[in-house]
Amino acid sequence: MAKLLDDLVEDYAANGRKSLPVLLSRLRLHIRPFFDKVFATQFGTDLVKKYMKLRQKRGPNRRP
Questions:
Q1: pTM of the full predicted structure?
Q2: What is the three-class DSSP state of 61?
């Protein structure tokens, strides 16, 4: 997933998206710690639900 997330950042930058700083922050604080070491083939509904439950349990401003 790390490579896919890198590609997303590259796309935001290439297209001059004003929300790039927000994306970078959310990736660094929340998404990358959970998904970076996951293989894209492992990514699916079950993993997303697990992430959502963890985020809800810890609150919106806590790292996974």
A1: 0.81
A2: coil
Three-state SS for 38? coil
Q: Express each pLDDT in 22-47 by its tens digit.
A: 999 999 999 999 999 999 999 999 99
- What are the structure tokens assigned to 15, written together? 């297209």
Any idea which residue has 């790039």 for tokens? 20
Which residue reads 């083939």 in tokens?
Answer: 41
Q: Yes or no: say if 61 and 26 are a contact pair by the CB < 8 Å rule.
A: no
Domain locations along the chain: 2-58
Sign of CA dihedral 34, 54, 57, 21: positive
